[in-house]
């Protein structure tokens, strides 16, 4: 008999009009409901979220919550009117980016707000250097989103993001430590496939399949990572 699903709610942090803002267990959602759930979501993007709720994944720190709420309010308002997701996402990104600028993120990270910083400045901790020379770094997710790509989520590598240096895999520091191994597996597998010439969409889909498999069977994670060069 399978274990019944539990609600992913952790804490209600505020209300915006008739909307309740909840901190949720993103690891649970990705493992049991939707492996593509990212840092946050709302009903018109993820129908399993109740209509009058905004969900934000538990962060290692809460320093981006206000940015995410601003994004969700714009995205939800537009999609409720029938605006397609990608168009709503673009406009929500603009609103979120403006808030990040007002917070001083871009000014602090760039030279006079014009020149991109050395990518090494987002490094927080070298997790491991693999035998093939690839370096896996825990990075400041907030800095990456504010300066390089506002939609950066969970992790990435140079075959997807042009700002990631050759031979590096980045893991967002907002990913809780118990979940990092699954994200690492996804990124290493995806990178290895793309290095062999597989297009992103196919590599991502295959990596998501393996990630979900290991989320449901965590005893297989170590061996799966070994196949990707993590020894």
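^ Assign residues to that structure.
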């Amino acid at each position: 008999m399978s274990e019944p699903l539990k609600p992913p709610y952790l804490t209600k942090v505020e209300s915006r009009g008739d909307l309740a803002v909840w901190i949720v267990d993103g690891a649970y959602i990705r493992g049991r409901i939707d492996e593509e759930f990212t840092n946050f979501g709302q009903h018109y993007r993820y129908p399993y979220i109740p209509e009058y709720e905004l969900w934000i994944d538990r962060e290692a720190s809460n320093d981006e919550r206000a940015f995410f709420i601003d994004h969700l309010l714009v995205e939800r308002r537009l999609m409720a009117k029938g605006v397609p997701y990608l168009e709503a996402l673009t406009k929500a990104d603009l609103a979120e980016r403006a808030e990040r600028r007002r917070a001083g993120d871009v000014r602090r990270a760039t030279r006079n707000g014009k020149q991109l910083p050395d990518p090494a400045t987002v490094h927080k901790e070298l997790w491991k250097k693999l035998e093939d020379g690839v370096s896996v770094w825990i990075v400041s997710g907030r800095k990456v989103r504010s300066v390089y790509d506002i939609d950066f989520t969970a992790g990435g590598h140079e075959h997807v993001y042009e700002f990631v240096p050759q031979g590096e895999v980045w893991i967002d520091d907002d990913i809780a430590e118990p979940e990092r191994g699954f994200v690492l597996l996804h990124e290493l597998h995806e990178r290895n496939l793309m290095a062999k010439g597989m297009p992103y969409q196919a590599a991502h889909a295959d990596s998501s399949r393996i990630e979900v498999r290991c989320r449901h069977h965590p005893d297989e994670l170590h061996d799966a990572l070994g196949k990707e060069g993590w020894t």
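The mean pLDDT is 91.
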